[in-house]
Design a protein that fits this description.
2 helices; 0% strand; mainly alpha
Length: 71
């Protein structure tokens, strides 16, 4: 997914199911706050969310952020 441009597209993949903690979407890995705020976020805020999603997917401790630990 490209993050260039003034307003990147939503990372939604239409698999809208929350994890067991009820904090993250299993489809796009966004938090409820990120999902709810997406439409109002600036382009830079959206790009920051997309960077966070990459860390959640590919980080050296992938999944630990979802468990509430900062990466």
């Amino acid at each position: 997914m490209t993050v260039a441009g003034p307003h990147p597209p939503s990372p939604c993949v239409e698999v809208c199911t929350l994890d067991a903690s009820g904090r993250y979407c299993l489809g796009c890995l966004r938090t409820l706050e990120e999902i709810a705020g997406w439409g109002a976020f600036s382009g830079e805020e959206k790009r920051a969310v997309l960077r966070a999603l990459e860390r959640r997917r590919c980080g050296p401790r992938a999944g630990s952020e979802r468990a509430g630990e900062p990466q």
